[in-house]
Amino acid sequence: MRVLMVASENDALKNGKVGGIGDVIRDIPKFLSEQDICVDVITPGYQYHALANPSTLIDAVDVPFRQTNERVDLYYLEQQSSDKIGQYVVENKLFCQGQPGQIYFDDGDDKPFYSDANKFALFCASICELLIGPWQNRYDVVHLHDWHSATVLVLSRFEPRYKAVEQLHSVYSIHNLAIQGIRPLTQTESSLRAWFPTLRYDESILADTRYSDCYNPTRAAINLANVVHVVSPTYRQEVIQASDPDRGFIGGEGLEQDLQVADQQHRLVGILNGCDYTQTIPPIVANKELLTLIKEQISGLHGVDNFVRASHFIAEKRCQQWQQHNASGPLIISVGRITEQKLKLVFETSESGYVLDDIMDNLQRFKGRMIILGSGDAQLEQRITEVMKRHDNLLFINGFCSGLSDQLYVNGDLFLMPSSFEPCGISQMLAMRAATPVIAHKIGGLNDTVIHLHNGFLFSGNSVNEQVNGLLEAVTLALTMYQQDKVQFNKLCQRAKAERFLWRDCIDAYISLLYQPSMAIPP
């Protein structure tokens, strides 16, 4: 069997990822290859990877796009490839907005996905052109990841030129249903009609359910793929239900009816992502050594924006304060993207300001500290910085450094992950691998990995207010156990460390549930 993986990120390449999807695309091919399955992975090169890695230009295709032909070059990345794994990128000037290597481009709230939609529409057309040209009859399965690759299925269904692509067994993986890549059907140069002017399509399959004049690539792929895959069993149950923000529940995000149909047709599968347990990271024993490492990383993160520089300045001062006064209490860690999904609950208002203020006040009573590492939404970054100004026991490192995150996982006493929704999550697995118990919301992949009072601490609630109260209670419970019952806390740490979410087990499910055509009903 030969599989083509199509994605926007790939952590097998240096600077090839932004989020967890990059880790998945890095790991899956390695474990599939151990089962004698050949895997090729392809992403845009973003005007970076073909130059930054040893590569060979092996082909080029002319892609019909916007009433002209765009030349797209295909590069083979030699160093990252092996006998059963091929790493490829395609290059075109449209694949780079901003700095070379920048994967996603933010056009602002008034033009969501404008530039990225153009880029990934051409990327999808390039894949189709390769599959009827140089890669004709090469693959048994095409595995598409998130909205960035979804238009492959639209072109294969509705563009006669690509009919042969439709014969391939197709798998569509949803890593985050909250990001759907919605763009207008017409009326703008970043629209389905502008990209493919002669395409005749069925709007009932690919129009957004809330905005009928818009193209929703995620919905289209759900309706067109042979198999739809979500990244945990609990998330599979959540996405077939309607979202209900009033009670703090995030479900199908407008696509629950399409997902219900896929479920009824036995095309919807939930498989938990895995974690790599071959990597071992020794902790930094001395607190001052960890703070020295943090200061070194902060010095390399100074950005252009004045506020970002201000957050780094405060963080450097906080490191100096901490170096002068060692703490005896617990260290809570939080590592991840600074987004509403991850942090909405801690920024609900309270008498102290935000719920995060309440957590810091509570932590102070235990003589504890918190370190937050991440970047993302500028407004949320500002809020965290404001809380850091108010609380001497909070350090916010506004950026991301993989080496530093590894050290935080192994040096923390508790890991906080209060996501409003979490399709799978990798951070909780990495924390548990490092024997750091997780405080988490009982949803999605967090529910499938963390067991309350066995290997971590869970909270829940039928409203946002109940969830906030549950979060605060879980933090207090964890801190109390850490301080007053070391024996029980250490047992919980060891149980967390002993958990195994193996890619090998996931791959068995991939092969039997995703890649076998007989398992799926064609849409």
Which keywords apply here?
523 residues, alpha/beta, 9-stranded mixed β-sheet, 6-stranded parallel β-sheet, 21 helices
3D structure, described in words:
The structure is a single chain. The protein is α/β, with parallel strands linked by helices and 523 residues long. It is 40% helix and 18% strand. It has helices at residues 20-33, 49-52, 114-132, 151-158, 163-166, 192-195, 203-206, 217-224, 233-239, 256-264, 287-299, 306-324, 340-343, 355-365, 378-390, 402-411, 427-433, 444-447, 464-484, 486-498, 503-514, and strands spanning 2-6, 38-44, 55-65, 68-77, 85-91, 141-145, 169-174, 183-184, 214-215, 227-230, 268-270, 331-335, 349-350, 353-354, 369-374, 394-398, 414-417, 438-441, 456-459. The strands form 4 sheets. A 9-stranded mixed β-sheet has the order 3-4-5-2-1-6-7-10-11, with helices on both faces. Helix 12 (306-324) runs parallel beside helix 15, helix 14 (355-365) runs parallel beside helix 19 and helix 19 (464-484) crosses helix 20 (486-498). The longest helix has 21 residues, at 464-484.
Number of strands: 19
Q: In what range is the share of β-strand residues?
A: 15-25%
From the alpha carbons, calculate the radius of gyration and give it in angstroms.
Answer: 23 Å
What is the general shape?
globular
Helical content band: 25-40%
Report low-confidence residues grouped into runs of 5 or more: none
Structural class computed from helices and strand pairing: alpha/beta
Strand order of the largest sheet: 3-4-5-2-1-6-7-10-11
Residue-averaged pLDDT = 93
What is the CA–CA distance across the termini? 22 Å
Total helical segments: 21
The biggest beta sheet reads: 9 strands, mixed
